[in-house]
Amino acid sequence: MQLKSFFGSPKPEFRYELLSTAFPEPMAVALPETVTLLIPEQPGTAPCQAIKAGAKVKTGQKLSWDANGGPSIVSSVTGTIQSHTPYTGDYGKKFAAIGIATEKADQWDESFQSLTGEPTVQTLIDHFSGAPGGADFSKLTDPGKPIKTIVVYGGDTDLLVETNLFVLKSRISAVMNGVKILKSATGIDEIFAVAPSEAFQNYDGHFEANVKGVPVDYPACQPLMIYYQLFGKMLEQGQSFEDTGVFFIRAEAVGAIGQAFSQGRVPVEKILTILDKSQRKHLVSARIGTPIGGILKMLNISLNDRDRIIFGGPMTGRAVYSEQQPVQFDTDAILVQDANDIILNSDYPCINCGECIRTCPTRVPVNMLIRFLEAGEYQDGADLYDLYSCVECGLCSYVCTARIPILQYIKLAKFELARMTLAEEKND
Ligand code: SF4
Ligand code: SF4
Predict the structure, then answer these.
(1) How many C-beta atoms lie closer than 10 Å to residue 82's C-beta?
(2) Smallest-distance ligand from the CA of 10
(3) Separation of alpha carbons 43 and 104, rounded Å
(4) Are strands 246-250 and 269-275 parallel, antiparallel or unpaired?
(5) In angstroms, what is the span from residue 102 Cα to ligand 2's centroid?
(6) What is the pLDDT along the chain (428 residues), one digit of tens a residue?
(7) Which of 69, 177, 399, 423 is deepest in the core (most CB within 10 A)?
(8) Ligand 2 centroid vs 403 CA: distance in angstroms?
């Protein structure tokens, strides 16, 4: 529920990266000895023959847990499957982590090539759900939630990160081609291309899409903010973009589609922004599944006890606990913090200083909301204190005097409420 108008919001203090000058090509990370790919597991079923330990795989080969269907990814390397182990992602999402010992020379699986003549949604589901940028294309086929509008967003969703905007600006013809393919595969004509206005001028008329600029102030490029700016409303409780007929996809994913359909091979390299301990930025390109330790080694970034590795940017990223953590199709940035620079969260109570309210771009009464969320009173937080106006920018956590992990509480509350709504729908 949205209780307050956005008009009169305070001027945000942070700006996105705009890449207004040169586009240095990303540094290539060497092929690692093993990669780890995450496949959504299907409970109660055994893995199919193609992904059993000892099976050979080719670069670009479609891999899925169940030979009869279900979610799939594309192998980023040629090699031999060594293992699959259970892997729990954010909010308990279950995956199988497939370890593949790599061979130095790629042998490409050419089966995708025969599909490039006639783009279909099924081809997008089978070959691009785990491609760089990724998206859950199965959402395009739900008869209960017909999609009428596709939004391609070209900005990055956190500060200091420049991955998605780099792809949009440096691979613009691939992105334009990807938009054409999306149109052809889905039959959807209403497509918006959205990015920070100062970085996205003069593209009107070149895209088969409505080109829209959004402010360069953080967090205008968060998908929830873009949704508000395009449609003038926020999502209601338990609603997803797809519930309202809108499908969001990153420019990087659209660029991967455009490149694949023109070259006959699905890209397997992920571009990432690496922020080292001195906050220097490095743009790198690595095979999906590369352990992050290899990337940090290449950049001479050493890790000591209690240093922190964060997947994502400074506002919305999450800490990971191992250098073996693999780069995935949606890993945009890795931030490395020196132990001495880490500001730890606390369990102090809110002191009502009001900093969070002053900085919140959507004027959520965060000081009141957090009291309910800390107590697990999620529904009251939504009904009384505007939980669903939150666009998950993390600014409140960043400024909180009491160092309360507010964003994490908010995400957990939305997750729990969505789960409850789904359970109620199933019971009905
Ligand atoms: S994360 Fe915090 S600052 Fe950002 S919109 Fe949500 S409540 Fe407001
Ligand atoms: S910034 Fe933190 S301590 Fe201050 S009012 Fe907001 S939640 Fe409370």
Answers:
(1) 14
(2) 1
(3) 34
(4) unpaired
(5) 49
(6) 444 434 344 444 677 776 656 667 899 999 999 999 998 877 677 777 778 889 999 999 999 887 777 778 899 999 999 988 888 877 777 888 999 999 999 999 999 999 999 999 999 999 998 899 989 999 999 999 999 999 999 988 888 898 999 999 889 999 999 999 999 999 999 999 999 887 777 776 778 889 999 998 899 999 999 999 999 998 887 789 999 999 999 999 999 999 999 999 999 999 999 999 998 999 999 999 999 999 999 999 999 888 999 999 889 998 888 889 999 999 999 999 998 888 777 778 899 999 999 999 989 999 999 999 999 999 999 999 999 999 999 999 999 999 999 999 999 999 999 888 888 877 77
(7) 177
(8) 8
Measured CA to CA, the distance from residue 131 to residue 413 in angstroms comes to: 30
Query: Is beta strand 246-250 parallel, antiparallel or unpaired with respect to 149-153?
Result: parallel
- Among 161, 159, 135, CA closest to 147: 135
Q: Is 390 in the pocket of ligand 1 (CB under 6 A)?
A: yes
Taking the centre of ligand 2 as the mean of its atom positions, its distance from the CA of residue 404, in whole angstroms, is: 8
Q: Which residue has the tokens 């967090």?
A: 219
Q: Which residues line ligand 2 (CB under 6 A)?
A: 350-356, 366-367, 370, 399-402, 404
Atom 3 in ligand 2: which residue has the minimum CA distance?
350
Ligand nearest to the CA of 400: 2
Q: Does residue 392 line the site of ligand 1, with CB under 6 A? A: yes
pTM across the whole model:
0.89
CA atoms within 13 A on the CB side of 412: 12
Task: Give distance in angstroms: CA of 219 to centre of ligand 1.
Answer: 9
